[in-house]
Amino acid sequence: MAPRGKRLSSTPLEILFFLNGWYYATYFLLELFIFLYKGLLLPYPTANLVLDVVMLLLYLGIEVIRLLFGTKGNLCQRKMPLGISVALTFPSAMMAAYYLLLQTYVLRLEAIMNGILLVFCGSELLLEYGQDLKCKSFSPQHMRLTAPALRSGGSRWLGKGRTASHQHQHLGIQPNEASGQSPNQGHGLRLLHSTTGRGRPAPF
Question: Which portions of the sequence form the region Disordered (predicted)?
Answer without folding.
Answer: 166-204
